[in-house]
Structure formats: structure tokens, C-alpha cells
């Protein structure tokens, strides 16, 4: 059994029209039963296989991945291994398996049973569910789902390749459960999960799988709690067992997202696995090592993480280079699953045709793989037309108007180190104290207020032209004025306008800046049933006109208190868009930084005294390789400073970070040099405050006292205890009282109650200190 000449490591699961979202959400709402849901997703899988075959992947050669997931691939592995935390044990069925109800309950929680924690998948904006493992976790094959899907495909006339998170990555991404002993390491349970993988392999073979893909992206990361050497050793142990399993399909180990560590590369080459898939966009051609002669090498030359058509001829050259390694076969592949890109450029009718010709969404990437595979089989001549067409598109992209704008380039070229530096901090503090007259422990919120159905309806009606600009303006003004009144009632100190005019914190700006395009159907799964529509950052970024000033000015006109100006920072704008790949990110970030700098100057001139620049993605983009991190932090922090350093001493700059992993990027957060930083803290009841204290964080800081991720209303006591913890640990002058994050996903009932408690808690602590 050979391997096909080309394959993709995975395909979007959500459906071209987000069918999966609709199907699971209707099931959660109790409108459809499990059977109806299963039937819908089976037809979705059928359509996916048919589409991939239509695009040119083979029906019966294992080139079509079976990569469907109801919610998340790590959760699927946890369910299959029987490794759900004991709080979900009651959902195990009589025959010992976990069904759909267990899967969804683990993902979403149920009353007091907290869901699995969610966290970012490597350096992407996709979130996986974190398995909880301890000494007593019992691993046993607890779902037939993977094998069933192989059989389903077989019945449909397809031999597909099931895609499953591999044992090393599964454990490396898991966390120790609350019941685990201090210092317990999930990877120590490797031997115990392997038995279940062996059983699973046999079941897959039995169902008709000829190849299985085990995803092991942990082997590229230097940002996990295990060293590359530890991970490589675990890989050696794991694949020794799996390769020697008596009854198994051929095994492809896939390690995308960056360069496979040299240690793991040697181990895998020497192992008995049948194929290795590597990332050649974020990694380079590895060294020849012993053991490759009986392996298939899938060269990840088509980027699974961006939407550019790219340099197809260069991709083919790279595949030819791989042949020098002496593997049994070289195949064309994507760097990662295509789950990180939208389905199909053909679904975009509003994009400029010239831009369209530079793009490749999932379906176009499949076609590129089919082309490269044909080239590997029939020689370069056979595909030279396609290679040349891609090269021509790339050349066209380089010279198209808007891609390089002289005025923008002149500005970034003229930047001077002074442009990145604010005034002396002591003088700033004094100027702000005098100008702002804030109480100790000022209360504020992170920016957005609930995005009600009414707001969404008005926005949609405006987009469809059913209400005109003037009517929409009036609607938004009424909304802002309502939110300001509410904050007055609640006696909050520093107000916000509520962000009712924003569909999304990045897209709103992408629509107003030059250099961006937005899609109609370019949905990408963010987590579970949630998808986002990243903007396309294709050209030089500049700001044709002010973007937020009108709303900020209006909001400020309604209050004697300060209303914060509210912007999304350059790093987050880049992180949550598909960014041009023809120049360093640093250059693009500085362009965005300058556009924001102009906006901030306009806000300042309009009398806005406090301006918040959100950077929730600062941590997310941190490279997986330690050697790349310093350069990243340099440009990312630099672009934020470029945006914010132009203000007067008396203008207070805030920033907001969504996560609580303060310690990991503490130096960077400090270097942002924002006067005030708000950060998530409530879920851990303020644990991050210790890190802030230990770091001697010199700036103002607002550890969140209300976990806004659920509708639960935190009591006065609860919020007070976090605030008191901050007051005990940090200089009082530095502390702010605020929720963990924006309130856009919350309802008004819980918002009003929670904020009332927040203000009461703050007043209590003020009296005590
Ligand atoms: N200002 C934004 C809001 O409140 C911040 C959102 C975020 O951090 N993701 O919605
Ligand atoms: Zn946030």
C-alpha cells in the first residue's frame, strides 16, 4: 500500500454555509434530537468527501482525510480514550462508551459541572479543550466514532484516512486534574494511553482504513511544559509500541505549525511508522537522518494557515529538494489541517477580481495539492501551466495599486526611535493625577456592553440598506446614551461608550482602513460552533479618515466623567486577520501602528483623556520556538508603542489583555508602557495578582474581578475578595477594578447586577484601605 502523491492534513469541518453550527446549536436548543443531528452531519461528511473527490483527491487511495469533528479534535481524542474527568463519569453508557451527550457536556458544562477549559491551539486563534488527567484516569476505548466514520466512507465508496490527535500531543496538551498530586505530569501516563491507541488502530483497520494520520504538532513546540528532548523520548516510546501493533493501518505522523524538532525528526525516522508529514513553510527541509528509506515524506508546502495562492513553483521546487533525503516516496501536502482557512474563494462575490486571483481558500489549496501531486508523478512539464499561472498572479500582486503605497512607506521609513517612546513615567503619572482626578481603585469596564438582538438587527438592516445612515446614526446615539446613563446610575468612575457600532473588534477597523478587504463567507472555526470571519490584509495600511472619533466625542458630550476612547491594537489587528506574506509582519504592524497613532491624536484633540488600545492577541502570536520570541516581542511591542507614544503626558493610555498568563509575557506587557493594563483574573480568583506583585509591575493594573465568560453573577463578596487580594499585594495607587473582559456576549440582566456588585465591592475595599 503506497501513499497518494498528494493529500491535505484536514479540511474545514463547519460546512460551507456553517451547517455544523446550525445543526449543533439547534440540537443544543432542544429543537432537534441526536438522530437528526447525526443524520445532518453524516450528509455534511458525505458532501465533504464528494467535494474533495471532485477537486481531484483520490476516492480510494487514502488521500481524503476523515477529519470531521463535532466540536474539537482534542475533545474527540479525550472521549475516545475514555479520558473525561470524573465529573462526567455518570454520562458513560452501559456499554462503557461515551456518546454525544457526554461530548457536548464536557465541552459546555452542566450546572456545577464546569466544562473542560479552553485554550489556544499552538499559535493559532483556534481553541481546543484541555484534557484533565491524573494518576487515576482510566483509559479505555470509549467511542467507536472514528471507526464508524471510516466504515461510513467505505459504504459511500471511499477509502479515507482518519485523522486523530496522537498520544504524545494528547498528553502534552493535557493538564493535571485538580485531583492530581502536586507535580503530576500527564505525559507520565503515556504507557497507559498507548494500549488504547493500539486497540483503536485495530478498530480502524477493521473498518477499512488503510492509513491513519496521527497528529503530533506538540513535536514542533518549545512552548509546552516539556522539553523537545522529553517529547522526542515520549515519541520514541509511543511509536515503538504503535508501529509494532499487530493489527494496524499504515501510520502517518503529522507535525505541522513549525519545524519538527531535530530530536523528534530523528526518532520518527528511526521508528517503524510509515510516513511523516512536516511543515515546510514555517520550517525548512530537514537533514538526512537514518531510517528514511522506508518512509513516505509528506512535504507541507501549501500553507494551511493563510489564504494566499502563493508561490506554487517554489513549492514544487521544495518537494523536489525533499527527494534528496532518500525517502521511499515524497508526497505533496498542506502544512497543517485546512481547518484554519475558509472553504472556498468562489463563495466570495464582492471581492475585487484582482484580489481573488491572488487567493487560495481550502478548496483552491486542494486544487494546488492536486497539481503538485500530478507534477510529482508526471514531471514538472505536466504542470508548468499551473505553476506559471501562480507565478504570474504573484507578480501581479507585487505591482498592483495599493499593495505598496509610497506615502505609507515614506512614513515607516522615516520612523525614529523617539517615535516609540513616551514621556517619563513619573511626570506622566503626575500629569494624569492632576488632569483626571480619579478616586483610589477607579472602577471601569473593558469596553463593550451587551450586543443585544436589537443592535444586531439594526446593523443588519443598515447593511441591507433598509435603514439609512441617518436613522442608523440615531439608533447608535440612543444606544450610547443609554449605556452612559446606565454607567452613571451604577456610579462607575471611568465610562465607555459600549461599542454598539462594532460588529467585531478587528473587522470594524478593517472596514475603515485602506489595505484590507472583508469577506462574506470566509468563516473559520474559532471554537466549537463559533466561527470568525478574518479580514484580508492585502495592501499597505493607512487611515483615510477618523474611525472612532465621532462616537467617542458624542459619548463624552453626555458625561462629566471621563469616557475612554476604545481601539484595537496593531498586533491584534494582524493576529485576527489573514495578513499579507510578502513583507515582514513588523513592517505591516508599524503601518497599522501609525494609522492608530493618527486616530489617537484625533481622539486626544477631541478631548478624550483616556484611550484604551486592546491587545488580547499579544500572547497568541508568540512564536512556538524560543529563538524567534525576542524578535516577535520586539516588533509587536514596538508597534503598540508606535501607536500610543504620541500622546501628551496627561493622556492616559490603557491596554487590555484577555488571558491571565501574565508571567509568560510579563516583560513584554511591561514594555508596552501603557499606564493601565487590565487582565483576566477572576477564574483563578486573582492568582495572577501574585505574578504581578512578584514581577514588580510598575504600571496601573486592573485584575478582572468578574468572569464574564458565563452568565453567573459574582457576588459582592466574591469580587471584593479578589480586589482585597490586589490591595494586599500591590500599591493601592496602581489598582483598578474592572471585569475580566468586554460584555458584548452577556445579557443586560446579569450585566447590571454584576456591575452593581463590582461597584459595591470596590467601595467596601476603599473603606478598608
Ligand atoms: N474592548 C473590547 C470589548 O470590550 C475588548 C474585547 C477583547 O478583549 N476581546 O469588547
Ligand atoms: Zn478581553
TrEMBL record:
Highest taxon of the lineage: Bacteria
**UniProt KW keywords:** Amino-acid biosynthesis, Metal-binding, Methionine biosynthesis, Methyltransferase, Repeat, Transferase, Zinc
Q: What is its EC number?
A: 2.1.1.14
The record lists 5-methyltetrahydropteroyltri-L-glutamate as bound by 21, 125, 576
A Pfam family found in this protein is Meth_synt_1
Q: Name one GO molecular function term.
A: 5-methyltetrahydropteroyltriglutamate-homocysteine S-methyltransferase activity
Q: What sequence ranges are listed for the domain Cobalamin-independent methionine synthase MetE C-terminal/archaeal?
A: 441-763
User: Which residues are recorded as binding L-homocysteine?
Assistant: 446-448, 614
Q: Where does Zn(2+) 2 bind?
A: 658
Which residues are listed for Zn(2+) 1 binding in this entry?
Answer: 656, 680, 741
Q: In which pathway does it act?
A: Amino-acid biosynthesis; L-methionine biosynthesis via de novo pathway; L-methionine from L-homocysteine (MetE route): step 1/1
Function, please? Catalyzes the transfer of a methyl group from 5-methyltetrahydrofolate to homocysteine resulting in methionine formation.
Into which family does the record put it?
Belongs to the vitamin-B12 independent methionine synthase family.
Its protein name is 5-methyltetrahydropteroyltriglutamate--homocysteine S-methyltransferase
Source species: Microbacterium mitrae
